[in-house]
Design goal:
Structural class: alpha/beta
Largest sheet: 10 strands, mixed
Number of strands: 10
Distance between the termini: 42 Å
Radius of gyration: 17 Å
Oligomer: single chain
Helix content: 25-40%
Strand order of the largest sheet: 3-4-2-5-6-1-7-8-9-10
Shape: globular
Order of helices and strands: EHEEHEHEHEHEHHEEE
Number of helices: 7
Strand content: 15-25%
Mean pLDDT: 89
Amino acid sequence: MRKPNNALLAQIEFICGSSGTGKSELIKQQLKTEKQVLVWDAKNEYGDLPGFRTTHRKDEFLKLARAGGRVAFAAPPSEFDFYTRVVWARGGCLNIVEELGAVTGTAKARDAWHLICSQGRGYGIKTIGIAQRVAEVDKTLIGNLSRLHVRRLAYEEDQVRMARLLGVPTERVAALIGYHWIERDMTAGIVTSSLDQVKGPPQKRPNGQGAVRNTKKR
């Protein structure tokens, strides 16, 4: 049985925003420095990205995941449990789950997905969950977040809940338009936002992950 390395930092991020708010571009920026990546590719979008091999076959995904590198699994929601079991067994990777709301419920996470969210840190699993609505995402992921990144949300219910998680007034979340964002480092309690920048389009951060941070403690 594997032993966890509890000295590793937790890296669990949730990116939430309506369609067309720049979530995919943000992920592409974050991928630039990652070599070991497994992706739940709900819409079969990762095959054209540098270094990715995509498959819809379970046996091939298992083989490719074991070999290492960048691998995307484009499969129906019924195969999500298989995907998470492979990620948990593999360890040592960035785990990206697209369209999270389609494969998890709003209650406590189950099985291997629960292990990834609650214990993945010790086995080197970094996770990024992506969804259009927080109302469709499980409590286990939300309760273990190290970073929360929010873009424009269409539903008032989601705006209210995200404001509470971010620790900002609901009006700030409701004001998000275009590619603007608000982000909270859940560990440090630091909130940053592109809305705090000068007027105009968001600028790229020095680390290449979207707009420039304006660090403020809330």
